[in-house]
Write a structure and sequence with these properties.
The protein is of the alpha/beta class and about 300 residues long. About 30% of the residues lie in helices and about 25% in strands. Helix 6 links the parallel strand 10 and strand 11. It starts with 8 loop residues before the first strand and ends in a 6-residue tail after the last strand. About 0% of the residues have low confidence. InterPro entries: Amdntrnsf_FN0238.
Amino acid sequence: MHSLQAPSAVVMIRPHAFASNPETRDDNAFQTLANRSAEATSAAARDEHDHAVAQLRDAGVTVHVFDDFGDNDTPDSVFPNNWFSTHPGGHVAIYPMFVPSRRRERRMDVIEMLKRDYRVQDVIDYSGLEQDNLALEGTGAMVLDHVGRIAYTVKSNRADPVLLERFCTHFNYEPIAFEARDAQGRDVYHTNVLMGIGTHYALICLDMITDPERRATVKARLEESGRTVIDLTHGQIAEFAGNAIELTGRDRLVLALSSRALASLRPDQIDIIQDSATPLPLSVPTIETAGGSVRCMIAGIHLSRR
């Protein structure tokens, strides 16, 4: 079984100095403060990460784990999907990040592993554009339809429009950008909190897209690709139900999402997912205090093995 949308191998970063990052708190409405010591918080996050890795491996997903020992002051390193992405045909992108602490998460050992174990044709590095205060935060900023070649992108300071165009030209995607706000009227900072695209379905809170015409366009484009649109509520988004990633497991597709996210879904929504994929709930409550969930923790590898 092979799905272009759902990779069978991933990269995950094991955190040793995890914390809710003060630098990103201004525009990430999902962040909350853990009421524990730094050591206890970090240990709990590491434990959650290790359990998640074990569950993914049990499901047949290949997981490449890299330790982040925290000597670089990278509290958000558990979310590697923002600084690099991989693409069929052997292409890798490295991204410019919005805040300084997240720029320190980039590491060449991950890229070297990809080159060693997978067929990498080229690495396009956009990170130098940080000097011009431009950011495009990977598959957090863009939710990619690898089949329909569309980059769905919420307009924000984490997704510069010029850079988005440049990425789409290089990697052959069509950009579909839109404004999105939560129930409190706050701008959404990353596209992958409000939508996730599987092989046969898409999870999205259409109500968050502020412009009715754009909303209709996004829904139509998802349906044209043959997917069933699972329309999430604002409440479900607040439980991270949009922050999910479909992966190719041993026997079938799996949808990795947090336990909290799965608990927020209605039976009819779960039925649509189960038609083609098995929900795989991962318990990551401490990691979620940093404002990201399971999708953010997983960088998919869309490359052929050597």
